[in-house]
Specification:
Keywords: DNA-binding. InterPro entries: Cro/C1-type_HTH, Lambda_DNA-bd_dom_sf. Residues 6-60 form the HTH cro/C1-type domain. The structure is a single chain. With 69 residues, this protein is mainly alpha-helical. It has one domain (2-56): Orthogonal Bundle (434 Repressor (Amino-terminal Domain)), CATH 1.10.260.40. The chain is 57% helix and 9% strand. It has helices at residues 6-13, 17-24, 28-35, 43-53, 57-60; strands at residues 2-4, 61-63. The protein has a two-stranded antiparallel sheet with strand order 1-2. The mean pLDDT is 94.
Length: 69
Amino acid sequence: MIKNRIKVLRAERDWTQEELAQRVGVSRQAIISIEKYKYTPSLELAFTIAKVFQVAITDVFAQEAEKDE
């Protein structure tokens, strides 16, 4: 699973989901889906999100190790 820190980064900047969506060029629903792990963004979108936050992509997204059952 790819974890993200979008909600935290938005809160640090006091941005709403709508504001981030406008800056990135996607719908608010897309941001909601990414934050709730219902949608994994494309690599291009992931880089765009990181660029909007002015951080490295690894500061936004990280792969979580799969747990053995």
